[in-house]
Design brief:
Structural class: alpha/beta
Shape: globular
Largest sheet: 7 strands, mixed
InterPro entries: Methyltransf_11, SAM-dependent_MTases_sf
GO biological process, one term: methylation
GO molecular function, one term: S-adenosylmethionine-dependent methyltransferase activity
Order of helices and strands: HHHEHEHEHEHEEEEEHEEEEE
Strand order of the largest sheet: 3-2-1-4-5-14-10
CATH superfamily: Vaccinia Virus protein VP39
Keywords: Methyltransferase, Transferase
Pfam families: Methyltransf_11
Length: 266
């Protein structure tokens, strides 16, 4: 890894370590309800993966493990990985407190195969993950390495169109390229889970179009079952979204999708 990339990942890791305590006490993550049995998973991933009991599942970029542990509660044998030491520390604490049997490991997602030899029935990742990665070719290759023959990969992620906008100046304005290769740096107060927090988020990210995402998986040897796009999001993290009766959020004009999902198999 180049010195420049190492700097980007180190900065992001520091920011995510800072976010853990803030997120764990936020209404956004509602940790108390989760501890009492609330499932943190959303309808798309639940419908896509169905009954996971008895299946091995690798969760990439798991933050502090709520979704990993939700899959574990549903009977999957889970392993969660994340860059943040504090995130993984809290995930392990929750796993112990809730008497579950998930495993958690600190590593850069691109280095997963250096730390894990096991192959899984399911590899899963969701909501705000690939924008932290400069290179999806090595990401796709790693996913193929960690899937059993016949295993399923599923991701649900914010649509690349939403990352073309700058949201820091109040009114969203298109600032970044759909296929932009250059790194994007943002520095702002607060986090998506608590905009009133005084922490300073310093973040390096990359934009990835749908063509790049799909090709990185297919070139690694996965067969794409579907690519779906959705006009709604389970998270109210972009300005001026409207809450629907079903609890989902959408833009007032619905001019572009907010999410996409890919299901593939090896």
């Amino acid at each position: 890894m180049s010195h420049e990339l190492q700097k980007y990942f180190t900065t992001n890791k520091t920011t995510w370590d800072q976010k853990v305590g803030i997120h764990a006490s936020s209404d956004f993550y509602d940790l108390e309800s989760f501890k009492k049995g609330n499932n943190s998973l959303k309808k798309y991933e639940l419908e896509a993966l169905g009954d996971v009991s008895g299946k091995s599942l690798l969760h990439l970029q798991c933050h502090f493990g709520q979704d990993t542990l939700s899959w574990s509660r549903m009977g999957a044998k889970c392993t969660g990985i994340d860059l943040s030491e504090k995130g993984i520390k809290l995930a392990k604490q929750l796993n112990s407190e809730l008497n579950l049997d998930a495993n958690f490991l600190i590593c850069n997602v691109l280095d997963t195969s250096n730390y894990i030899n096991e192959q899984f029935d399911i590899v899963f990742t969701s909501y705000g993950v690939i924008g932290w990665l400069p290179d999806l070719k090595s990401w796709g290759k790693m996913i193929a390495e960690r899937l059993k023959k016949g295993g399923v990969f599923y991701m649900v992620e914010f649509h690349p169109i939403v990352w073309m906008f700058d949201y820091l100046e109040g009114i969203p304005t298109i600032k970044y390229g759909y296929n932009q290769k250059e790194v994007i740096y943002e520095e702002y107060e607060g986090t998506y889970a608590d905009m009133n927090s005084k922490m300073i988020s310093k973040e390096y990210g990359w934009n990835h179009g749908l063509g790049e995402v799909v090709s990185s998986l297919s070139e690694a040897g996965l067969t794409i079952e579907y690519l779906k796009e959705y006009d709604e999001s389970p998270y109210d993290i972009f300005p001026d979204l409207i809450k629907k009766d079903n609890g989902m959020f959408e833009t007032s004009d619905k001019l572009f999708p907010l999410l996409f999902a890919i299901k593939a198999f090896r």
